[in-house]
Amino acid sequence: MKFTKTLIAASLAFVSADTFAAAFQLAEQNVSGLGRAYAGEASVADDASVVSRNPALMTLFKEKQLSVAAMAVIPDVSLTGTGNAYGLDNSVLNDDSIAPSAIIPAGYFTMPVNDKVSVGFGAFSNFGLATEFNDDYAAGQIAGETEIVTVNMNASVAYKVSEQFSFGIGLNAIYAEAKIIRKFGFVPPVNPVIASIPASADAVNLEGDDMGYGLNVGLMYQLDENSRFGF
């Protein structure tokens, strides 16, 4: 029992870093994995999109691979107000379709250099999408508009150590744009000047962009023709 508790605690600690950014995290980096909800992505070698998940899998391809995809995300998110502290009609907290639709493109290319070495390139996104409330939404200071767009450009190389074991490493250059807009919304009438500010007026309007760099590493072990492990 002690081992089980320790394992669970370690697992939670391992995944917690991704949880903070999960609201804008994108799993849609290829079409081939979409039908299986991206299960087994670290070990399944469907096409050149392995560049984004596990570059070690590139050694399984004997010929050049090209993969281009465009995925549509069409969310349907609405809010219905149920109460507030200012005696307002709850309908002022209603909003329809706060998450706009988006198209997520991706492209990948891999090629074997020789029997041992393969290289690959990819352009995809790990984080994105947006939320957008009506300009006159009553809770504008915690709603407003939030948008993030990222492009991950990856160059990877993989080496086949043996027929069973391969490893790969990739260099990532990530460009990100972000926008945060908050509105005044409903302002309690404690001050005539403040209360006269329109609900749709900007309280915060921030935009920015930046570049970041990182590495990703992948391992692949082929147990037999029907079993494969990827990390």
Report the biggest beta sheet as strand number plus sense, adding barrel if it closes. Answer: 8 strands, antiparallel
Mean pLDDT: 86
Judged by helices, strands and strand pairing, the structural class is mainly beta
The tally of structural domains comes to 1
Question: In angstroms, what separates the terminal alpha carbons?
Answer: 27 Å
Architecture (CATH level 2) name: Beta Barrel
Specify the CATH homologous superfamily.
Outer membrane protein transport protein (OMPP1/FadL/TodX)
Radius of gyration equals 23 Å
Low-confidence stretches: 1-20
Report the CATH C-level class.
Answer: Mainly Beta
Order of helix and strand elements from N to C terminus: HHEEEEEEHEE
DSSP helix fraction: 10-25%
Morphology: elongated
Q: Could you tell me the CATH topology label.
A: Porin
The tally of helices reads: 3
Question: How many beta-strand runs?
Answer: 8
Strand content: 35-45%
Summarize the SSE layout with pairings:
Elements: H1 2-19, H2 50-53, E1 65-73, E2 102-112, E3 117-124, E4 130-132, E5 145-160, E6 165-183, H3 192-195, E7 202-224, E8 227-230
